[in-house]
Structure formats: structure tokens, C-alpha cells
Amino acid sequence: MKHFSSLLLLLLLTSCYTIERNCTDFKTGTFEFTYTIDGVEKTSRFKRTEHFNIDYHEEVADSSSIRWINDCEFILKKLHPTNNSEKNAIHMKILSTTEDSYMFEYKLAVKRPNKPLNIEKGVAFKID
Questions:
Q1: Which first-to-last residue range defines the signal peptide (predicted)?
Q2: Structural domains counted in the chain
């Protein structure tokens, strides 16, 4: 009975916890995030408006259109893809927010047949 009471109390406490998701605060603005490629950590900056996302990777601009699904999810599609893999749309989802950052996950918007679906996560910081 003691274990049951402890388990019930733990369940009640964790069910009251809700993740903060003020996604509308992050629909537009200038953001930065850090990522790692081949063991090298890099920082990228991007500017988002209601309809466009402009990425700045190593001072090279790359634009995408944005189609919002809801306040916390949107689809990115490159405006000028340079290869076939860049033609694939990306599904972005804001998982949680803080005052000046949000945690997100992204994956291909359409799963390729016979290929595993990779889901990546990251944190973006609002700088403007």
C-alpha cells in the first residue's frame, strides 16, 4: 500500500506539469542556433517573417517559404534548391518555449519509401 500511495502521488505531481509553449512569440524575428557537423560546432542565424525564412550559413543567405500548420508547426520549402535533396520540404515543430528560446524538432515533411525517418532536435535563441 505504501508503494501504491507513493506511485499515485508521483503520478499526480507529474500530470500537473505542463510544458510552456508560447509559439506565437517565435513566429517572427531573428534567431540563432548551434549545430554540429562532422564534430565541428557551428552557429547559424536566420530571420523569419510570417511567410519566409532566410538562413545565413557562413554568411551565405538561403531563403525558404513558410506554410504555418498551426501556431507551433510549419513547413519550410526552399525557394531556390540547388540539388534534389533540397527540394524536399521540412516539417518544423516547436516543442517548448522559454522567454528567449524554443526547443524544436524537424524532419522531412514527406517520408521517403524504404528510408528511415530521421527526426532532429535543436534549440533556437531569439536575438531580435
A1: 1-20
A2: 1
